[in-house]
Amino acid sequence: MVTERQALRAVALCLVLVAAVKLLLSEYRIERKQKLAIMDPGSFWHQGPKVKEAVTVHKSEVMNSFFNWDQKPEVPEPPVEKGADTAPLETSKGPARIVHLDLKGAAPKVKYMKQIFPLFSSLGADGVLLEYEDMFPYHGNLTILRSPYAYSMEDIEEIKSLAKLNNLELIPLVQVFGHLEFVLKHERYFHLREVRAFPNSLNPHHPGSVALVKDMVSQVMDCHPDARWFHMGADEVRGLGESQDSKNWLQSNKGDVGKMFLNHAVSLARFITERRSGVRVILWDDMLRKISPATIKESGLPDLASPTIWNYLKKMDTDGIGTLISRYHEAGFKGVWFASAFKGGTGIDQRWTPLDYQLQNHLSWIKVMNSMTKYPSITLHGILLTGWQRFEHHTVLCELLPVGIPSLAMCLQSLKHGAFDEKAKMEAHHILGCNIKVEKDICEGSGAFTGSQIYHMVFYIHTNLQKEVEALMKHYHIKGGFSRYHRKYNFANPRIIGFFQGLLKKLLDKWETYIENFRMEMEGIYFPDTVEEWMEENVNANMDLLRENARDAERILKLNGQPKSLKTL
Predict the structure, then answer these.
(1) Which residues are CB-neighbours of 99 under 8 A, at least 6 positions away?
(2) Which residue has the higher pLDDT, 34 or 543?
(3) Residues 345-382, buried b or exposed e (16+ Cβ, 10 A)?
(4) Which Gene3D superfamilies match (predicted)?
(5) Which of 236, 399, 427, 521 is labelled catalytic?
(6) Which long-range contacts (CB under 8 A, 24 or more apart) does 393-396 make?
(7) For labelling alongside 106, which of 6, 43, 141, 488 has CA 20 to 30 A away?
(8) pLDDT tens across 252-268, in order?
């Protein structure tokens, strides 16, 4: 009996020891993850090996012109071991990850937002930055600003409900200085332009200017009573200082264009904060970069707003970003935002998102985010993942939103995990239903994400339409016996037409069917103006060439090789 008791005591003692060991190991893992989350900031400032040249970008061209940063070396992506236990750089309690929806082009229907908001949330987004432009349902004197397809007030309420349902914070954005082309294009507002011939920027000295943007801001703020942040834009104020009003002001103020900018920015930021207590203002930072910290501090702007430091380059100068953070801290700002790009930051007419370009941009931002321990007195509020749809109001569309979804997933997962490692890739794969292949610029597989049909169809059009049409136009008998000249004068040998007519008809029929199916997919997400524009810019030239050749071949064939006669319709 004694032996049995001893055995039971021994078993009990073993169980206690096992539990104690598990507890110690658990505490060790937690402590290790906390240490990993605070990476050595000093390591990111060291220069690394060079990478391939970056392509020309949109807003970052302005950044380089200010500081000539394109001549400085880049700190590339740190090596990450596969399966490495890298702690997330941020959580819902840390700096926010905000997805930017640029509505000045290809604004999606609300029914698509019902599908993409849950996707944003599952990928790790904390909010959405809504850059309304002409899609906001302005009323009263501002009705003229509305797009024919602008959202209704009911649409806005539904968007707000969708955001709340998916735990996404909405941040409205209204431009108040530059990028006001959608306003200043109207003849009613020509007199408010800074440069009479151009619709880009507002004349800050005209009494009607401030009244106009205050009315715009007020209508949007009234529609977003729960918004904690309000973005007032204020980037790329082109031509500032060129109006006669500005020249007169500069003569009396030592030619200080920076102070002129600050006067207008402070006026609007103060209006926003006084209109609703507790609202915090955001603005893009590029116009602040040439202004001295002392001048910025004296203006009072740091008490009213937080700058967004943006850079969309693949070869991002992280040292230069550190310099800006230091300058803004010296100016008195208590917090900053960062801005990367998941699409729309490369070519002005970019059709397909370059994955490695966007990934490298985010990996550089991760290095900067890890360095923020160097600036304990300034808070990083979050990072805006911009998805530009146009470079400005009068330019063509960039990549469609469904085309940029794999890039967005890659970028959000990289920010969440600290790198696009195996864990991040697996999570993105699980959510999207396809494998992101950075080196191939594609997400392989059928894809389960909303808009995946458009994603795959755009890829097919992008890689095949023009190539196949050009190949046919190089056909021996089309080049030699059915040129533009032949078609103009209805002059061709029926025997020659017979060599290519079947191929021409087959290719035309194939693409007519494909494009019709694509159009139906597009119409499910986009308004008619977007569908028409995308078709005109990316499809119609090639399709019209096929159609014209097919019609001409059929008509000229019936002439049986007769003498030349000028083509008639």
Answers:
(1) 120, 125, 127, 128, 129, 342, 385, 387, 408, 412
(2) 543
(3) bbbbebbbbbbebbbbbbbbbbbbbbbbeebeebebbb
(4) Glycosidases
(5) 236
(6) 393/104, 393/133, 393/134, 393/179, 393/181, 393/182, 393/185, 393/199, 394/181, 394/185, 394/199, 395/348, 396/348, 396/349, 396/533, 396/537
(7) 141
(8) 999 999 999 999 999 99
In this structure, what token pair is assigned to residue 488?
Answer: 């103009």
Instruction: Give the whole-angstrom CA distance, residue 548 versus residue 99.
Output: 43
Q: Residue type for 16, please? A: V
Query: Residue 63 — pLDDT band, cuts 50, 70, 90?
Result: very low
Task: Dump the DSSP string for 102-156.
Answer: ETTSSPBPHHHHHHHHHHHHHHT--EEEEE-GGGS---GGGGGGS-TTPPPHHHH
Residue 48 pLDDT greater than 60, yes or no: no
**In angstroms, what is the C-alpha Rg of the chain?**
29
Q: Tokens in use for 91?
A: 């959580």
> pTM value?
0.83
281-310 pLDDT, tens digit each = 999 999 999 999 999 999 999 999 999 999
Would you give the DSSP letter of residue 469? H
**Which band of pLDDT confidence, cut at 50, 70 and 90, is reported for residue 276?**
very high
- Report CA-CA distances (Å) from 35 to 38, 81, 370: 5, 18, 12
Beta carbons of 222 and 172 less than 8 angstroms apart:
no
Q: What is the mean pLDDT of the chain?
A: 87
Catalytic (active site) residue 468: no
Positive or negative, the CA dihedral 354, 360, 363, 367 is negative
Q: How far apart are alpha carbons 398 and 354 in whole angstroms? A: 12
Distance CA 441, CA 328 (A): 36
Sequence-separated (6 or more) residues with CB below 8 Å from residue 292: 258
Q: How many beta carbons lie within 10 A of that of residue 32, not counting itself?
A: 12
Classify the phi-psi angles of 481: left when phi > 0, otherwise alpha if psi is within -120 to 50, otherwise beta: alpha
Contact 305, 281 (CB under 8 A): yes
User: Using one digit for the tens of pLDDT, what is the confidence trace for 64-114?
Assistant: 443 333 333 333 333 333 332 222 333 445 799 999 999 999 999 999 999
Distance CA 497, CA 503 (A): 11
For range 527-549, the mean pLDDT = 98
Token pair for 529? 């103006």
Contact yes or no for 345/59 (Cβ under 8 A) = yes
Residue 14 three-state SS: helix
In the chain, count H helices and then E strands: 20, 10
Mean pLDDT of 358-381: 96
For 226-244, what is each residue's pLDDT tens digit?
999 999 999 999 999 999 9
The pLDDT tens digits for 129-156 are 999 999 999 999 999 999 999 999 999 9
Nearest CA-CA partner of 44 in 531, 522, 533, 372: 372
With 0-12 CB in 10 A as exposed, 13-18 as middle and 19+ as buried, what is 236? buried
Residue whose entry in the numeric block shows the structure tokens 């399966």: 83
Report d(CA 125, CA 171) in Å as an integer: 13
Residue 351 above 60 pLDDT?
yes
